[in-house]
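Reviewers of the previous submission asked for a worked example of the structure-prediction workflow described in the proposal, so we include one complete record here. The input consisted solely of the amino acid sequence. No template or homolog information was supplied to the procedure at any stage.
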Amino acid sequence: MIDNDLIKEIIDRADIVQVISSYINVIKKGKSYVAICPFHDDSNPSLHISPEKRIFKCFVCGTGGNVIQFVQKYENIPFMEAARKVAQMSNFSDPRLDRLNFKKTVDPKKDALYSCIDDLAKYYQSALNSEEGQEAMKYLSSRNISSEDIRKYRIGYAPKNGKATIAFLNAKGHSLKSIEDIGIAFAKADNATSDTNAGRVIFPLSSPDGQIIGFSARRIVDDGSSKYVNSPETLIFNKSKTLYNYHNARESAPHDKYVYVLEGFMDVIALGKAGISSSVALMGTALTKEQIELLRRFNCEIRLCLDGDEAGQRAMMKMVGLLNKAGIRVRIVDYGGDLRDPDDILQEEGKEALVNKMSKLIDTFDFQVSYYENTKKLSDPQERNKVMNYFIPFIRNIKPGIDRDNYIVRLSKATGYEVEAIRHQINLAPAGKKTSEEYDNDDVVSFEWNDYAKTTTRLVGAERAIIYYMLNNYDAISYYEKNIANMYDKVYEEIASYIQEVASNVKAVPDVATLMATIAGDENANSDELCGKIAAIIDDNFHPPYSKSTMDEAFAVMNEEKDRIYQANRFKEELEGKTQDEKAKLLTERSKNVWNKLKRKKGGI
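From that input alone, the workflow returned the following structure tokens.
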């Protein structure tokens, strides 16, 4: 449990400007300070630091928090560890610091499995050095995997006698239930239980903090069986939440400022041998939302390097879209027609050739254009039109200048359209607007969505005002508790709950830095978003002074707009499955109803 009094004292004692200055260059600007934001690809100082409020906030990527959270994010360490580090930097000592717990509480059910799988990993590592393990050692040697690599990646070998493995774990005090629950046991014909990994080289799979949670077992000889046998989903292992070598990469990524995303374990080891420590491998070619979140935590450039064949390129196309949408900086390793993977390059040409290959990077725009050039029949006018319209929204959001001109010329060369024709298409609508290619539905649905978006904007404005007043006035907190209790935007509702919680303890408006510390200390999955919102809202200067009437007005807007959204959603459901003529008729009827309602409201007929 977080010691709020201690955390508040650490924040109070720390000079936020001095602490952040020890990591990045900070420039004084008026009463505040600014810096190049280290949490996104920043070129102009967008990180603002307020010594008065003791918080930082980036007005581009939205990252915000107190001094402890800055250290936590920058160094990728637990909140409590960051708290101790800030205390040390501020020459603040307290006996309570020695009791700060860096480890998360462990589910007792998982604890037994962790113990079992740790013993099994040690058994595999020991077996690799046995007489039987020499066959596996020869295989690893043939792949130029050294004894140092074996130690670093905790590579092992599963003896062919799978029943002996089970007997070993039993002797260590692990139940058959635990052995089955870590995913390595199967029942043989003689009713005995054996190891599914028997006779294979073992690559342990770890959680982000380095705890072994599963295995990938590779065959040594081609006997017709699967090349790899991976652990099944268990209580402690979830493939979609795992990236190979993540725990090692998180140590080097803050220094390197990049992480390579690769397709195989051997590729990660190959890059490590070439001196590139910051790399991870996927558990397949699909990138999950959980893995995207893991990549986001690196706070650095992600460099994609999957196989150069069509399947690998297609997978990277999907990943580029997902990572761009998540706001993660991405570049692509330029294959230049080379279909070899990193491990093959290392084996055939050596370290220098691999480093050179991995250093040839292109941006996502060039990669995507090249992909379409190689996979689409751009001699077909219809295909060329689709490709052009795919890229126009991206170019439209680039500020006029050299970069935008270069993108237009590149697209012109790929599609065959004249530069001026592409400029004309770009100028048809302002930045942020979608092209017809991007709409999944027809104009009627688009019209309804625009109406819905305006309603949502008004609603969010009202709820934001309520949060602002709660951050600045104790009466606003009481008003919320008595009258509102919940919001349409769940992020704002969660912030309001934290404000109420802290306010009830201190009997006053919460100090914003301490409020953020409470959120971070709870290890809330949304803590970054919550603290970012708070840091933005606390600086709002456009709200009128607090009064009960301002809260009444905001509350009334909330209710009115929530009802409009409900009605809009019902109408969208009514449109589903209808023909174009039927949709047009429904829209006309709805427009008449809205118009009549407005006239009545204004005192008309």
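The domain at 443-596 is CATH 1.10.860 (DNAb Helicase; Chain A). We consider this example representative of the routine output the project will generate in years two and three.
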